[in-house]
Amino acid sequence: MSYEEIFRYGSDSIGPGMFQVLRDRLEAELGEDPFKVLERSPKRFLTAMRKIIGYRTTEAYFSMLAERLRAAGIAVTKDVLIDAMESDDPSRLELIFRNARIVTPFERMYRQKVFLQLEKAAKARQRRVAIGSALLGIGMFSLVLLVVTLASTFLSQLQVNIALAAGAIIAFVVAVENYLSNTAPAPRAEMIMRMRILGGSVPPLDEALHRVFTAILRERKGEYVDVSLSSLSESLEMSPVDLIDSIMMLQRAGVIRVESIS
Questions:
Q1: For the sheet containing 256-261, what is the strand order?
Q2: N or C: which terminus of the chain has fewer CB atoms within 10 Å of its end residue's CB?
Q3: What is the fold, at CATH topology level, of the domain defined by 3-97?
Q4: Given 3.30.700, 3.30.300, 1.10.1450, 1.10.10, which CATH number is that of 188-261?
Q5: 184: left (phi over 0), alpha (psi -120 to 50) or beta
Q6: Residue 21 CB: number of other CB atoms within 10 A?
Q7: Residue 216, Cβ density class (10 Å: 0-12 exposed, 13-18 middle, ≥19 buried)
Q8: Which residues make Cβ contacts (< 8 Å) with residue 119, sequence separation at least 6?
């Protein structure tokens, strides 16, 4: 994702047309595409902003921009952004936005809806498999009962009892095997995520990330942390989708690293 797309996304929440106004004024000040300048010299871009809209307004702008970006999944603060730009090191700024993936409110809502539909479909399938397995077991036992009844004149009472008991056991085993072999895999909310704590700092203004990180630390028993996504989402009263987004933001911030999901 380009710097222009990121700044456009962050600016649109500040005010209608804010991005275009800022872009035009920066282009007039710098004499070229401002985002080309940002790629080469972040400090020059920042200096031009401070000259155009003032020092305090620039600070407020980056504060609102950082808040907007955090909500979209990029773990960053105003100070981190400004420090990276003042260092005039393009690689530092690039590192912040590397693999940035903006999640719009509509996309978040769509993902949440799809997740709930998949979870509902998995539960419905599980019910159907349970009913089908029970009917299979009943059908098999009914068949055994019919055969034993027809052959009862040739069998002793002990043989009849043994045949019925064996038929019941076989029907039960077949029903259970059918249920276990056809049950849908657990949805991703039930997965266990293994993480390593790296020691990075959680963005100080993001209360939600602090809550998630604190909950993760409570599960720490050694070098790694094994977390059940379903249990963690319930304890934090967050949807699994939002919880996974928060974990990915912590990973981008260098606080944790996801090692495996099982």
A1: 224-228, 192-197, 256-261
A2: C
A3: 1.10.1200
A4: 1.10.10
A5: beta
A6: 14
A7: buried
A8: 187, 189
Q: Do 200 and 96 meet the contact criterion of CB atoms below 8 Å apart?
A: no
Tell which residue, 161, 162, 169, 160, has the closest CA to residue 141.
169
Helices (H), 98-228: 105-151, 157-182, 207-218
> Does residue 61 contact residue 68 with C-beta atoms inside 8 Å?
no
Which pTM value belongs to this model? 0.43
pLDDT value, residue 113: 73
pLDDT at 189: 46
What was the pLDDT predicted at 46? 92
What pLDDT, on the 0 to 100 scale, is given for residue 224? 83
- Cα gap 61→77, rounded to integer Å: 12
The domain locations on the chain are 3-97, 105-182, 188-261
Structure tokens, 223: 């070098």
User: Distance (Å, rounded) from C-alpha 125 to C-alpha 110?
Assistant: 22
Q: How many CB atoms lie within 10 A of CB 85?
A: 23
- CA–CA separation, 141 and 178 (whole Å): 15
Q: Low-confidence residues of the chain, pLDDT below 70?
A: 1, 10, 12-16, 70-75, 97-112, 184-190, 203-206, 241
Q: How far is CA 62 from CA 77, 163, 175, 250, in A?
A: 8, 80, 62, 20
- Sign of the Cα torsion 45, 47, 48, 52 reads positive
Other Cβ atoms closer than 10 A to 10: 23
Instruction: Please check whether residue 11 is in contact with residue 19, taking contact to mean a CB–CB distance below 8 angstroms.
Output: yes
Q: Which two tokens stand for residue 62?
A: 């980056």
